[in-house]
Amino acid sequence: MSQKLILASNSPRRKELLDKTGFPYKIVVSEINEKLNENFTPEENVKSLAEQKAEAVSLNYPDAVIIGADTMVCVDNVSLGKPKNEQEAKQMLKRLSGRIHTVMTGVCIKSNDITLSFVEKTDVAFYDLTDEEINNYISTGDSFDKAGAYGIQGQGALFVKRINGDFFSVMGLPVARVYRELKSILN
């Protein structure tokens, strides 16, 4: 591998998934203001945020290959970010209860001569959730660093009736596609 690979994320889930590729990399967290553009669709926003993260890190590492990613949960064409408190987490999980929502992960792979951006969409169906289930889950603290107030890889898996799409994208990185794109860039 001739170029250095950098993951522009502090997400433990993205790190875990990128580890599966076998490519050596380092983590450099991008310090962007993750503000949604009101004129963009959720898909355009998640792609734009991934691009902004990769671009911000590339300014200090112009010869590296940078991976930026962002994940967003959408229901009724409304984006659900990370909840700020228990009340917001409860509202999000009640909104997702018994319904299908879309999880979008935007990815930007940027090197000095290539910028590849894409969005992976996965539909997730939830069982009907009781208030007790929601409260028990929120009490674990797992809701607060995840879009939509749940993580599919943890106890949030107990809410999931089925998924249609890439499971790993719901975790935060469509690792199989990222691996294939990196192979073509790094080798």
UniProtKB/TrEMBL annotation:
Keywords carried by this UniProt record: Cytoplasm, Hydrolase, Nucleotide metabolism
Catalytic activity: UTP + H2O = UMP + diphosphate + H(+); dTTP + H2O = dTMP + diphosphate + H(+)
Record flagged with keyword Iron: no
Chief localization: cytoplasm
EC number: 3.6.1.9
Cofactor: a divalent metal cation
Top EC category: hydrolase
Molecular function in Gene Ontology: nucleoside triphosphate diphosphatase activity
Record protein name field: dTTP/UTP pyrophosphatase
Organism this protein belongs to: Terrilactibacillus tamarindi
Lineage of the organism: Bacteria, Bacillati, Bacillota, Bacilli, Bacillales
